[in-house]
Amino acid sequence: MKKFAFTLVAGFGLFAGGSVALADEQTHVVEPGDTLSSLAASYETTIDDIMALNDSIEDPNLIFDGETLLIFSDSQTVERKETSNSADTSNSENQTVAESTTAASAASSQAQTSTPSAGSGVLNPVDGINYYNGVRESYYSQKVLPGGGLTIPGRHVASDGTIRDADGYIVVASDNQAKGSTGQSSLGAYKVYDTGVGHSGIDVYTNW
């Protein structure tokens, strides 16, 4: 026989942890506006318990006016929880804290793994995003999104697939660096020729 757990209300008596009791029979005639959730709240039971006692309910979101539903039954067995609500709440909070700590630790570990301390050429079409000296690098494919309208003296494709100017600077876009400024990326020295990155790092122009 399936057992159902719900909160004990006045009139049903007191029971020790783990013991069982029989609930009184209670029916309800569905009125306009009634829902299973509102009935469960009114009678201090659960939607699952009501559905288990009424085979006519196929959809928990659909009950019919005038329908008589069995809320409690004298044949229904009720199992009491041995732990108190305060203990359950404490355990739940501890579990949430533990999960948050684990997630933060995993994120920190991943960030450390993907942040090289020196130029490594990690940025590529497979990895997609690289971090160099704390700066996020993403590539801007000239095969898919050509940088039309940019004036790049001596624009050419280097052996590593990056788009470079006549002086060998990698062409990048940056939202927080002035056009014409230079810097160092994991793939080498760069010069800012464009904006519209959408993040605080740089977009490296490539032929990937």
Description:
The protein has 3 helices and 12 strands. By secondary structure, it is of the alpha+beta class. The N terminus is likely disordered. A 6-stranded mixed beta sheet has the order 5-6-12-9-11-10, with no helix packed on it. The protein has a two-stranded antiparallel ribbon with strand order 1-4. It has a two-stranded antiparallel ribbon with strand order 2-3. Among the domains are: 60 residues, Membrane-bound Lytic Murein Transglycosylase D, Chain A; 78 residues, Beta Barrel (Barwin-like endoglucanases), CATH 2.40.40.
Brief sketch in words of this structure:
Helix content is 21%, strand content 25%. By secondary structure, it is α+β, with helices and mostly antiparallel strands.
What is the topological layout?
Blueprint: E1 20-22, E2 26-29, H1 36-42, H2 47-53, E3 68-72, E4 77-79, H3 85-113, E5 129-132, E6 135-141, E7 156-157, E8 163-164, E9 170-174, E10 182-185, E11 188-194, E12 202-206
Strand order of the largest sheet: 5-6-12-9-11-10
CATH topology of the domain at 129-206: Barwin-like endoglucanases
Number of continuous helical runs: 3
Distance between the termini: 64 Å
Weakly predicted, low-confidence segments:
1-23, 78-84, 108-119
Radius of gyration, whole Å: 33 Å
Structural class: alpha+beta
Which range does the strand content fall in?
15-25%
Give the H and E element order. Answer: EEHHEEHEEEEEEEE
Describe the biggest sheet? 6 strands, mixed
Q: Class of the domain at 129-206 in CATH?
A: Mainly Beta
